[in-house]
Amino acid sequence: FNTMHHKLKFKMEQQSQNKINYLDLTIMTNNNELKFEIYRKPTSTDLILHNTSCDPYEHKEAAINYLCNRINTYKLTNEGKIKEEGIITRILVNNEYSTYARDHNTKPPNNNTPQKDKWTKFTYFGPSIRRITKLFHNTNIKITFKTNNTIKNFLRIKHETTDKYNLCGVYQMTCKDCDLKYVGQTGCNFRTRYKEHIREIKMNGQKSKFAQHILDTTHNYHTIDKAMKILHIEKKGKMLNTLESFHIYELTKQNLQMNEALTDSYNQIYDILIKTNQTQEI
């Protein structure tokens, strides 16, 4: 290969003391017989997903499965198996797992588990998400999780703005003279959307439910800092529709919404989220 181009410099690694490292294996020769042990670089650490981290247990279990499955998959020597089991035990202890996790994950997988055709993904924010995902246990949908507490998100540069009304997302407008509220979404900034509502009031328009309420009841309205509450900052997209629908549903349950009855039907997931929020506030 090296003769094909002057920049190609492949080197052949030779065995040393009758052994050579290849990927995650150490391959040894003894009397024309191959023996295998797990190989780790000198820079490797015992770091895996910590047992106390805010990650789904499925992700933590995957890291343990990876370590344990190699013992069952690779044809290791007896000495290699004993050595690897000791290393796995040390890794588990250093990450505050019980050694039961190792014994549990060394069992062969159960192939009789019924297969599910569809997948849906949830963002894992804590154990309370299980109250929602368990609704899918007896369905043809398999659950998977993602997390936001990644290195990429921690290192991302956040451009903060001093004026929150220059952002977009889901907002709530409150009448000055009663407790009724209007929930809406906007892809433009909140200040522009507030001006649009006020313009409809002044022009006696029919495009705004908030304006219709003010005109029909002859109630008054606040300035933007008192009338508008920002519920979520989010870019235009499907997530905005879901967030808006949830807050309309929440206000409907409280009999406080001005919106059209967009979510009359019972939504079990929304109910769980509302109860969870109420519990956290207490």
- The global form is elongated
Order of helices and strands: EEEHHHEHEHEEHHHEHH
Number of helices: 10
CATH topology of the largest domain: GIY-YIG endonuclease
The percentage of residues in β strands lies in 15-25%
Domain unit count: 3
According to CATH, the homologous superfamily of the largest domain is: GIY-YIG endonuclease
What CATH architecture label of the largest domain applies?
3-Layer(aba) Sandwich
- Rg, nearest Å: 29 Å
Structural class: alpha+beta
End-to-end separation in angstroms reads 69 Å
CATH class of the largest domain: Alpha Beta
What's the short version?
This protein has 282 residues and is of the alpha+beta class. 37% of the residues lie in helices and 16% in strands.
Structural topology:
Blueprint: E1 19-22, E2 25-30, E3 33-38, H1 57-73, H2 78-94, H3 100-105, E4 118-123, H4 130-133, E5 141-146, H5 151-155, E6 169-174, E7 181-186, H6 190-202, H7 209-217, H8 224-227, E8 228-233, H9 238-253, H10 268-281
Parallel strand pairs: 4-5
Antiparallel strand pairs: 1-2, 2-3, 6-7, 6-8
Helix pairs in contact: 1-2, 6-7
